[in-house]
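Crash report, auto-generated. Payload:
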Amino acid sequence: MVETFIPFRGIKNDLHGRVMCYKQDWTGGFKAGFGIFAPTMYIFFASAIPVISFGEQLERNTDGILTTVQTLASTALCGIIHSIIGGQPLLILGVAEPTVLMYTFMFNFAKDRPDLGPKLFLGWTGWVCVWTAILLFLLSILGACSIINRFTRLAGELFGLLIAMLFMQEAIKGLLDEFRIPKRENPKLTEFIPSWRFANGMFALVLSFGLLLTALRSRKARSWRYGSGWLRGLIADYGVPMMVLVWTAVSYIPASNVPTGIPRRLSSPNPWSPGAYENWTVIKDMLNVPILYIIGAFIPATMIAVLYYFDHSVASQLAQQKEFNLRKPSSFHYDLLLLGFMVILCGLIGIPPANGVIPQSPMHTKSLATLKHQLLRNRLVATARKSIGKNASLGQLYGNMQEAYQQTQTPLIYQQPATQGLKDLKETTIQLASSKGNIDAPVNETIFDVEKEIDDLLPVEVKEQRLSNLLQSLIVGGCVAAMPFLKMIPTAVLWGYFAFMAIESLPGNQFWERILLLFTAPSRRYKVLEECHATFVETVPFKTIALFTIFQTAYLLICFGITWIPIAGVLFPLMIMLLVPVRQYILAKLFKGPFLSDLDSAEYEEAPALPLNLATQEGERVARASFAEEDLLDDIITRSRGEIKRIYSPKVTSSTATPAKDPKSLQSPRISEKAYSPCISELKGDKSPQLSGRGPYSPRTGEARPSNLGQSARSSTST
Amino acid sequence: MVETFIPFRGIKNDLHGRVMCYKQDWTGGFKAGFGIFAPTMYIFFASAIPVISFGEQLERNTDGILTTVQTLASTALCGIIHSIIGGQPLLILGVAEPTVLMYTFMFNFAKDRPDLGPKLFLGWTGWVCVWTAILLFLLSILGACSIINRFTRLAGELFGLLIAMLFMQEAIKGLLDEFRIPKRENPKLTEFIPSWRFANGMFALVLSFGLLLTALRSRKARSWRYGSGWLRGLIADYGVPMMVLVWTAVSYIPASNVPTGIPRRLSSPNPWSPGAYENWTVIKDMLNVPILYIIGAFIPATMIAVLYYFDHSVASQLAQQKEFNLRKPSSFHYDLLLLGFMVILCGLIGIPPANGVIPQSPMHTKSLATLKHQLLRNRLVATARKSIGKNASLGQLYGNMQEAYQQTQTPLIYQQPATQGLKDLKETTIQLASSKGNIDAPVNETIFDVEKEIDDLLPVEVKEQRLSNLLQSLIVGGCVAAMPFLKMIPTAVLWGYFAFMAIESLPGNQFWERILLLFTAPSRRYKVLEECHATFVETVPFKTIALFTIFQTAYLLICFGITWIPIAGVLFPLMIMLLVPVRQYILAKLFKGPFLSDLDSAEYEEAPALPLNLATQEGERVARASFAEEDLLDDIITRSRGEIKRIYSPKVTSSTATPAKDPKSLQSPRISEKAYSPCISELKGDKSPQLSGRGPYSPRTGEARPSNLGQSARSSTST
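Recovered output after restart:
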């Protein structure tokens, strides 16, 4: 994105791009058929469960003024609006933990003011929302999103880890509370005598760890060895919601031996209970708010605006990472404008606003990539089988597959060139043919193992459409009506799910991987090099990595600490904003340029990219793009985030290499595929000849460890 | 072993062999230094915890006549005797689950007879022991152990799985009982009101699953990436006992909020309590047993004799598998004779006898292999470093290492040729040298990564000595005095440990692996081929494997079912004996010879081995023997049991191959190393040139799947 601050320019560009593909956004979704329900259900649960739980948290923190009904309503309402008229439909909206924190800070402030009090709290937040929306409008119109690239990996990953910490904190707090008497309950009830409280706590431990462990396992079902393919697929797609159901069922097993309150379950008023709808008329109260507070509302509003600007844009950015090879354009400015309108709407009807959420948004894209992979695969497999049935040669087979692949590519004005998948297909097929015999001889399944080869060929693509987002928002809305069923879920299952979300968001976060690297024994660091890893592992000295990581960790802990401060905690988004100058002026002085660019590449520091043909030649050496198997897809997409990973790159000694030589500065979507392939081959144990033959580096791990890490590992073991 | 039935011949041979190395059995142990404590503690816990738990079980089943004190005393007494004057010191003795079952059957029979009753129960079992011992003497003198080879893999693995099932059953029963009021307790106690019972049950779930999961994890600590080497080693060596301590400590965390009985802990009389020693005077009661019952004692005695003959010999056999490359001779007959004497001794002092136990005995050998590997490694690394320091060439380095290796090999009359490790060392070093430059140039650590290369070179060897067995027996004896401390262990931790033992015994059991294969999706079966696997996976059609496995599973379930029958259950050892004729006459007719020999090789069916030089040539092709890394050692030794595993063997299409061509019929210890090496290379991702270059088969997995399994996998996906 070019940094441009001409008013309305960004919004116009966004609208122009998205209108072009608006029709295809819908037709594409419907064409996917029932397959669309897998990502829909996955995201629905990932979206609804935190929202339900945040509702519980808000209910405790605001003395019952805001409940699960309001958070669900806001998530559904904003989700539906965004999925229909929003820009980037991959972005998932929801009431997020930072919003809950801000509302808690605001309630704690308002409840003790005699001229506000709990009664006018919602009216006052209405004004906060109005101010927030005005600020968001300004940011959007003035093109503020074009500087989103100044929020480098440093800020994005720090924020990601902060969210993960908040999720984990929620899980631990929740579990500890299971051993205590809840505040707003009658402590004389049977279930609160010490023995039952202890029993409830232990039961909660069983349920939450049960959910956590089984959910983590089920996500990997595709790579299981047991059970038929459809069962494994089903478990991988719907395993997490299934586990919520399973552990809810388990919680009823001892029902006949325990009082009704054991284990504790979700408690929220039904939407049809009296008083549950008081917030709809907030607009009347807004006029009763004293003028001083209306003006004062500007202070929290700036914080929320900063937060939403950052959170919404980063969520959108993470949902559109380069590795996904998206074909449709982004829409940062227009989405921020729309968010402003939704914030006003939520403020006026007294519900907390929803914004783009992490990690659900990248999870959404990832699940759609899996869907697209399945659709493409089924199509190509059918074509290949048909060709083989007709005794086609490898050349013809390739032609037919190319045609079928072409048909799946809807032509779009904004699309990136779509020929990569084909080119690779051709290259590989020819390699295969020459390695196995004549290219014109009829193919059979012995020399061309259809399913396996096609899995190897397919590039990452995403089923970009609006349907899954709309459907999941509608189901979230349906949850408001399904409250009596939701109340059957034990709270302990929620805590387990929170821990699951926190853990699921870690892989692929380089900050997290660097923290792990600090704890890796020096003698085992070479193992990191043997696997897929980011560039910095090879090019940056360990000391620099350690220093950078320790700085970032300290910063993270400060941010986390600030959220604990009673009312000043409202300022924590400022700390995230502050990272931009810190990165640009302080870190740039502390660390050498090439190191910093490998650890945290910022576009504004990068040298212009190499001419494409030169770069391609470079890339060519790193073997063909390939997808190992379905189960690797998860791995690949999770593992990396806008960064290229490799086993042994030609750039083995270049701690002084300029970033320009780094393939990541090339804009073609092909790059990431290519750069992945050595990793994938390694994971597959695939010893294809071009890997060992062509490059200047040997894949044999024992012979050379050319990186800094390898050397430091060796020198530390030899002393 | 040659089948010979000349009286006393077997015992004489055994004694002759063991006397030769008796001195070295002790000096070797003391030379190992403090390292000996790792296997000692590992086996002590693996031995003591089940014995403690079986004591609890016996106490319940015999109305308190036999308790943990008696089972511990028996285990310690027999262990000490066996470790000092026994034949094979790798064999671990203990009171085993089948013994507990037999004693329960006998008690249920005796308690209702008016002329026996609980009072004369121990006296009667004294007679049973006398008869048992007489039978064992006969078996031993007549050379019955020489037919132990007729108990093929079929019987051994079925018995192993039966023991695992009994362990798991004990774990599940124990956990369920945590929710109930124990029989012999006062149900009016606070801890037995419904709420505390439920709390206790849930707490038990947390503790047992906590122990199980952490113990399983800690065994793999050597391959962890985090933490320093000594910490990882410490956790791998002592992790399981440490986890018992940790979870015992955890069980005290809520102590201030719960009544003293929560969670339940081990309950057993202290050995100094009045009445705990009543059994010592059993010999007086033996004379009061009516003559009819003295004669009738012969019936259970035959069952116990059959059981002990089988169990003792199979445990000994499993502790001396070919893959361990033991240097010292076996001692089946003499050990059985000694067992007879110990059975009489135990019978006369009224304690249940101990016999050789599974899985502790193979666990013992395995832990000693790890110890030996560490000792060898440290020595060679020091030598290599010294040579490099002196600017030695690769040739000199090899010479020095050869000398150091030679020094660790104590010359023994019975030892197998010890030159393999060296030969491989030389071959590899030369390969390395030629791949990296001049063999006469000075070596440095860049081209010869000492620790890694040496790990790769070392063959499997076992620290064969008597000290670890003696020490662990002494500590088990010490447990009798440490009863007050043992009583701090929650029973739930025991149940977790039982499940751990059951699961730890599964890997390497081909019967279990075949059961898993039945549940493996046809499209994923090729994954089995990509990993280490047994010969049968490639040579036997899937249908035959399935049929054989279903038969074996049905037989296992019948055996398991019989143990549930109240008194006739005493007959279950007969079912195991029956497997010999079933295998020899029925199965041999149902299955084709070559298939059966791959699934369950019986020595009596095998053709004579090929001449050694011819066979070596064949073996040479399968690359050098190597050890990947410490953590692989576990894997290798656990995975296989007297069977050779490979990735792609030259024998790819030979479902008709004669067993004679199979390298496993060769008696050199080298074979198993060699046959392992492709697996190891694969696991390491090591693409050494000799692997891909020399053989007639290509290691590239995608190109050829020459086995039956691979073909059936493909055909099932293509339909």
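Post-recovery validation: Chain B is about 60% helix and 0% strand.
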